[in-house]
Amino acid sequence: MQEVSRAKIERRVRELAPFHHDIELPFGLRTHVPEASRQERERTRINTLIDHAWPALLEACGGSLKGLRVLDVACNCGGFSVKAAQDGASYVMGFDVEDHYLKQADFIKEALSLNNVEFKRLRVEDLDPNIHGMFDVTFCFGILYHLENPTLGLQKKSRR
Ligand SMILES: C[S@@+](CC[C@H](N)C(=O)[O-])C[C@H]1O[C@@H](n2cnc3c(N)ncnc32)[C@H](O)[C@@H]1O
Asked: How do residues 60-100 score in pLDDT, each as one tens digit?
């Protein structure tokens, strides 16, 4: 994957802001743009979860995500997918229903030259192991309360 220039990253961050996750990019840049931010949550959301829940998550996975396939349900701009890829997952698939969030996620993936992450436009209700494959770990952050039928959403994410 070709390296993305500092100027391009700066331009795309401005064009695509605000981002729901504050993610570290090359050249000391970040996705958080204070002037474009709608709420403080955008700066703290991913960091709070990573600081407090990530150690327990890694422990539950045997100490590391190394070599695991990770599914990031309702990935938004992909902060948790990126973190999983950087922590050694062999493959990460993030999906969401909003094109704008997927554009943000693809930009971040390109800026960080991550080649083991894919972002797709998909409804959790349409998740199908025969099409999308099986995963070792599923992230299900901030989605159940968005679903008309959360039980169906949970069933779709479970092994059959
Ligand atoms: C509160 S955000 C949570 C984003 C991220 N998982 C997090 O915890 O920061 C909810 C996300 O769910 C997505 N979403 C809503 N309904 C969905 C559905 N039926 N299938 C997949 N994604 C959905 C929205 O586009 C949005 O990105």
From this structure: 999 999 999 999 999 999 999 999 999 999 999 999 999 99
Distance CA 117, CA 113 (A): 10
Ligand 1 centroid to Cα of residue 80, in Å, is 12
Task: Compute, in angstroms, the gap from residue 147 CA to the centroid of ligand 1.
Answer: 9
Q: Hey, whose CA ends up nearest to atom 11 of ligand 1?
A: 74
Backbone angles phi, psi at 12, to 5 degrees: -65, -35
pTM of the predicted protein model: 0.94
User: How wide is the angle at C-alpha 39 spanned by C-alphas 76 and 17, nearest 5°?
Assistant: 50
Strand order in the sheet with 117-121: 117-121, 91-96, 69-73, 137-139
Rounded CA gap, 33 and 35, in Å? 6
| CATH architecture for segment(s) 6-158 | 3-Layer(aba) Sandwich (3.40)
Would you say 154 and 144 are in contact if contact means Cβ atoms under 8 Å apart? yes
